[in-house]
Amino acid sequence: MKRREFIEKAGVIGTGIGLAPKMALNSSKSVLNVGFIGCGLRGQGHISLVLQRDDCRIVSLADPDPIMMERTQKLISTKLDYIPKTYSSGERDYIKMLDREDLDLVIIATPWRWHTEMAVACLERSIYTGLEVSGGISIDECWQTVRAEQASDKHLYFLENVCFRRDVMAVLNMVRQGLFGELMHLECGYQHDLRNVKFNNGKQPYGGGVEFGENGFSEARWRTVHSVNRNGDLYPTHGIGPVAQYININKGNRFLYLTSVASKSRGLHNYILDHEKGGPDHPNAQIEFKLGDKITTMITCANGETVVLHHDTNLPRPYSLGFRVQGTRGLWMDVNKSVYVEGRSDSHRWESQAAYMEEYDHMLWRRYEDSAKGAGHGGMDYFLLNSLIEHAKINARPPFDAIDAATWKAITPLSEASVASEGSPQEFPDFSEGQWKSSKNDFAYGSEY
Ligand SMILES: NC(=O)c1ccc[n+]([C@@H]2O[C@H](COP(=O)([O-])OP(=O)(O)OC[C@H]3O[C@@H](n4cnc5c(N)ncnc54)[C@H](O)[C@@H]3O)[C@@H](O)[C@H]2O)c1
Q: Are residue 77 and residue 147 in the same domain, yes or no?
């Protein structure tokens, strides 16, 4: 779809949630001034993709960590013949950056506790905002982002890259073409052994040790402490983002309530005990981690579907987001990479997903496969960033906005409350305030972004 068609289509479809008033067509830009808040490993990933584009100018960087800033400057110096302005004098120097620089787009890739404050600050200053993923800290925080986006003349794009994963998009095609019939049940999650990421004193991106906090590097500096103090699904969006596209959450459907249970906690403690740099006498061996090794959450939807969400980051296991998309005519499961379609598959037999993935490959992937080569997470980061930038240029409502961010992030505080109350059901706030009934899902209908 060409940009003009996209604008026309978006103008029609987007009337549900605040697109029309923000479509200032005369302010569309062909080159964006981009700033970054947070230049850690994820921020550097985004920067390296932006550096490959001629429609972005990296104006400024904010990050108080001298090591990360140095790494970023080194990365940038290989590509740019100018030096972006840096803001590294403390945790709120980013505010100075927002006030002083002429920024069209800011990408936020910081520790979770900063996300809301930073997104609100950008939106208040009329800056299109790309916000990295996280679980929410509180329901109140989720509302703050929604309110800030409503009050702003710019949008918030929630940077959920897994929605662009090739198989996930092919399955979106399958769902939209009715291959699985009417959807009934979905599963997903974040199942990723992060033990050596959460303990990293090796000063390497994923070196692994037994230190965290001030002694750690990258996510070990801040992520591990969430596992010390919190018990719930801490990272729901990689799973729930794609699922939300399959069943049109906030666009004709919505999450009603969830219940969560947590297993006991052993993985992180045992990792410290067994590690060559740890052992029973290491101070971190005394820590009692609150986070259950396996959190299981069940969600009920307004249109009658159920969703099971897994959070599993502290036990030995290969990576899998554990998708299952099941309807009245069949299902896909990504754990066994298989499909079953009644009337097409041999009765009671799984079929390899390979032929389906080819047949239903999304037009975006067919078109931009070469451009995406080498981009992070199997290429999907290319599609995410491209979509962000193209939406920012015309100030269009993104496919995943502040209402989606709030809804997906709310799973974390709701699941913590449920775990803390013996699995009692927790209602989702309706962050769309009723607009979910008339809104339509416009994610990935076009072939441009
Ligand atoms: N979508 C994905 O695939 C993916 C992958 C990795 C990380 N992430 C997300 O990206 C975010 C960042 O993760 P990361 O792995 O880059 O962590 P990181 O620790 O490597 O980077 C975070 C950076 O933020 C900086 N920072 C902290 N406080 C700041 C402040 N007040 N102002 C400016 N900068 C500040 C830190 O110094 C650090 O450089 C998290 O939300 C994480 O969940 C997403």
A: yes
